[in-house]
Amino acid sequence: EKIIEVREIAREYSIGNQLVKALQSVSLTIDKNEYVALMGPSGSGKSTLMNILGCLDTPTRGEYILNKQRVSQLSDDELAEIRNKEIGFVFQTFNLLPRYSALDNVALPLVYAGMKRSDRNERAKEVLELVGLKDRMDHKPNELSGGQRQRVAVARALVNKPSIILADEPTGNLDSKTSYEIMALFDEIHQNGNTVILVTHEEDIAQHAKRIVRLMDGLVESDTQQNRKE
Ligand code: ADP
Ligand code: ADP
After folding, report:
1. Does residue 230 have a pLDDT over 70?
2. Average pLDDT of 22-39?
């Protein structure tokens, strides 16, 4: 079952009287429960494509259908609503609120979703347990290691039960052992039935995915299924 369909999307930026084609023409279909790595050299369009897939940006041409909704032409408010409902983001820099405990960071998306406090906390504890951090729920980000911070961020991404998890270089700020642990967590999240898309420039991180899409100059250069040893 299709969750993402991107048809011949382009994204152009005008800088002065120059036109930069961040994406020339990209077509891509991603099914529910796929595990996809998006690769490519710097400037190939990865961030631009992730921003569009995450409903942070819209293409200048083409069609984007997310979970049966046409999102290419929506207003910023409509995009924000879809984003809150459908997308769980994980960033290289964690992006946690420093004054909030792990629990409150994880529960925050549920505030926007209008859930009442006791239900929010119950759900947040449930996901913190899933990422192995329930015993740290009262800690603030600066009282946690890098790997633990990223676990909090992963829990926050999952808390709303989004349709897709988008991770942009999720291990970019972690040492190799911690990266491995975070990737094991993504593997588990995928095995639990989630759709996972991650941007990485590291081949061994990309090997965790079942499919690798490589961009080059704003075009899909290759799109291959991996025969991964389980
Ligand atoms: P990647 O993530 O693969 O490094 P990007 O999507 O960030 O690639 O960038 C693709 C191209 O589009 C680059 O040439 C970049 O300079 C350009 N670009 C990206 N975002 C903008 C922007 N907001 N304004 C102007 N040019 C941009
Ligand atoms: P990444 O490490 O993810 O490839 P980039 O440095 O390519 O990051 O881009 C970081 C952010 O800045 C992205 O959201 C991208 O759209 C934006 N960006 C990239 N190039 C430009 C540019 N030339 N002008 C304005 N914004 C840009």
Report:
1. no
2. 98
Threshold 0.90, pTM exceeds: no
- Token pair for 19: 């036109």
Residue whose Cα lies nearest atom 24 of ligand 1: it is 13
Looking at the CA of residue 21, tell me the nearest atom of ligand 1.
12
Residue nearest to atom 20 of ligand 2 (CA): 43
Beta bridge partners of 196: 35, 165
Q: Which residues, in sequence order, are CB contacts of 169 under 8 Å at separation 6+?
A: 91, 92, 199, 200, 201
- Ligand 2 centroid to Cα of residue 152, in Å, is 25
Q: Which atom of ligand 1 is nearest to 11's Cα?
A: 12
pLDDT at 227 over 90: no
